[in-house]
Amino acid sequence: MEVSEAHAFLVLAEELHFGRAAERLQMGQPPLSRLIQRLERSLEAQLFKRTSRQVELTVAGKTLIEPARDLVAASQRAVEAVKSTMTGQIGTVSLGFAGASSNAEVAALARELAIQAPRLRFEVQSSQFADDSLKKVLDQSLDFAIGLWEFLPSELDALHLGHDEALVALPKNHPLAKHDSIQMAKLAHDPWINLPGGYNSALQNRFRQLTLNAGFVPRRQQTVPDSWTVMLLVGLGMGASLTLASVASAVPADDVKFLTVEDPSNKPMPLRLVWRRDALNPVLQTVIDTATDLFG
Question: What superkingdom does the record give (predicted)?
Fold first, then answer.
């Protein structure tokens, strides 16, 4: 049974009158009669009793009502699904982010997408460091990434989400922790705890720039996998770290003091959402439009 046959059958089953049913279906009465006869032949069952005065459903006809409704509904859902996909309302998108430094932006975007496109599946992968997430967007293992980058490859497009500031994290019992700001040169002899960083990691590049400006090479550097571990080790007095204002507000660190850096080159760093400019489709465009409206 075809969808058009199921639809015509259901209209006739409601009207029990060929003239009224044909009018609702915007077709002539003879074509409707032929359609019903063809359906009955294909099912090898009489669906309607016809007399000169009335039309009635047979037992077989009554049995067919629910399957016919299911078929028409399934067809409508299929059409809606295709339309929703073409308008970016159905699909799956993936986003990588570093974790604590962009938790707030990821959460805000996920909440807004749940409102604007509730049938869109939004998959997020945390602990994606800047360099790694950029590579994954380039090789299309991720659709989007949020992070801080010194520069972007020409294959990528970006949306500015906000700014982040580099701060120095010191143990609270450090002699210099009583201040609110610090000159990097005063930490020339301190051990440092850092996150992994590639050539395009904004935070690690900023660390190299600030230590170079201060005229020293960091003496001992320990690399740890995430910001939570950095703050734990700093709080235990294992060293200092260059971190971000977003991390300071997101990661519990009662034993850590955060200080601004007294260096005019320590400008706020742009936080950006990036994607491949050649990979656009309606689903990705929905995310971009939502992020644009949300973050301006």
Answer: Bacteria
